[in-house]
């Protein structure tokens, strides 16, 4: 800071350390803030909320990152970028600095995150990064654990922040004890968050595949190209696919109501157009059509009874589901447009 004439501060977020970390940090001029709630994300959220500068550089305090690289992170922010990501994979990883499983897992997780969110980051889980105070406020960071690193990259993408990446060197952990990282647990938490924050991938694609397979099976049964067993499987897949797809919509709407309506303009437009009454009418019409088909089934030759009755029950079920779905959508609409 002194070398480059930067007016700034060093904030250390203490997450319940029992050694002399707090004492040493304060004696060297750092401002220590305390986060009693355990978790990587919790510690960072507390520290970031206390930071007072226009630009913020964050790094794990385990001696694995060279903080004299400060200006390489600050300069892109001065040039107009909202966030600067360090990349260990584009830079250098010193011997003993990264476990073998992490060398294998980090590129896979980063690649999966890029596949879903199109972030373009080579190292989405690097612990050294920088951003403006405004960018921090636009990301609405919330997660408590190691998935915090993924959350920041995902939300930067959703908020359409201008992000760049620079190669850095990762040094061995200097603490002389076992790190808090748990490879499989933390990897799962990252993967879980990546999927949960993209309902269209977690629910939408699976729901669509099930629905189309079910519709094809139903068509084969109704056209007398398959037997009742195929029809039952088709009905199961169709209803399951529809339900999974709606779960995806509810998850997306829940995100919308919680924190970032300005990130999902299509859903915002849908909520403004949605009418409970019209949806109830659509559901009632479907239900009545199903009942009519069931009644009609008793009027046709026995050869067609089974299939017509089956179709009537399925259409009536969709009608009832549409009615109750409309009420839940209205609840989400009310929360989303408050």
Return the average pLDDT rounded to an integer: 91
What's the structural domain tally? 2
Strand content: 5-15%
Strand line-up in the sheet with most strands: 3-5-4-6
What is the first-to-last residue Cα distance? 45 Å
Q: What is the number of helical segments per DSSP (H or I, 4+ residues)?
A: 12
Q: What is the overall silhouette? A: elongated
- The CATH superfamily name of the largest domain is Spore Coat Polysaccharide Biosynthesis Protein SpsA, Chain A
Report the count of strand segments.
Answer: 6
In terms of per-residue confidence, which ranges show pLDDT below 50 for 5 or more consecutive residues? Answer: none
Q: What's the helical proportion of residues?
A: 55-70%
The largest sheet, given as strand count, sense and whether it forms a barrel, is: 4 strands, mixed
- What is the class of the largest domain in the CATH system? Alpha Beta
Structural class estimated from helices and strands: alpha/beta
Fill in the CATH topology of the largest domain.
Spore Coat Polysaccharide Biosynthesis Protein SpsA, Chain A
What would you report as the Rg, rounded to the nearest angstrom? 27 Å
Order of helix and strand elements from N to C terminus: EHEHEHEHEHHEHHHHHH
* CATH architecture call of the largest domain: Alpha-Beta Complex
